[in-house]
Specification:
It contains nine helices and five strands; from the N terminus they run E-H-E-H-H-H-E-H-E-H-H-H-E-H. By secondary structure, it is α/β, with parallel strands linked by helices. The structure holds adenosine monophosphate.
């Protein structure tokens, strides 16, 4: 089974992806994590995307699609994948459909997290402040001068995917403003049995 967790930055997709990974034996694939690893390693991709992530802009579709395609060929993706942060544009969604179809697979369900912008800003501001107070590193793109750009990119580039997957008949919505355990239970009820 291949699932997509769709939603704005700070909506809790990563937290739920980890829980689903454990519950369903699927592989979480976070393109944000993959890109941050490339930056840490200062690989060719890492050097190409570093400034883009720091600004809160989107990495070019071709770069992300190539990275996902390579990653999905690994054996740990064979049972299915939970996409977290991918696709983020209609072009990426179309590329994913084609990529899966080429292997006789498809996207089985898309869970969209609905969270008000004001709540996202509050969550991310609090998260950054708590990390700072604890002397821990703050993600540069969680800073108050960058986060609004990530939110704007979501509304402009990624939100059209809601209609895209609705048309495919596989979209499910959860209220991402509930406590984490309740979001998890709601997702469990929405998804097809294992
Ligand atoms: P995330 O950890 O999912 O919030 O992603 C962090 C950053 O990585 C985003 O703000 C983008 O700059 C970049 N990124 C992650 N996934 C994608 C994607 N699917 N398409 C384009 N850029 C991405």
């Amino acid at each position: 089974m291949n699932l997509i967790l769709l939603g704005p930055p700070g909506a809790g997709k990563g937290t739920q992806a980890v829980r689903l990974e454990a519950a369903r034996g699927l592989k979480q694939l976070s393109t944000g994590d993959m890109l941050r690893s490339e930056i840490k390693a200062q690989s060719a991709i890492g050097r190409e995307v570093e400034a883009i992530l720091a600004r809160g802009d989107l990495v070019p579709d071709a770069t992300v699609v190539r990275m996902v395609e390579t990653r999905m060929a690994a054996p740990d993706c064979a049972k299915g994948v939970i996409f977290d942060g991918f696709p983020r544009t209609v072009a990426q969604a179309e590329a994913l459909n084609a990529m899966l179809a080429a292997h006789g697979q498809k996207v089985d369900a898309v869970v969209v997290f609905t969270v008000d912008d004001a709540i996202l800003i509050e969550r991310v501001t609090n998260r950054a402040a708590a990390a700072e107070a604890a002397g821990q590193p703050v993600r540069p793109d969680d800073r108050p001068d960058v986060f609004p750009n990530r939110l704007a990119k979501f509304h402009r580039e990624t939100a059209p995917l809601i209609a895209f997957y609705e048309r495919m008949g596989i979209l499910k919505a959860v209220d991402g403003m509930q406590p984490m355990a309740e979001v998890e239970a709601a997702i469990g009820r929405l998804l097809p049995a294992k």
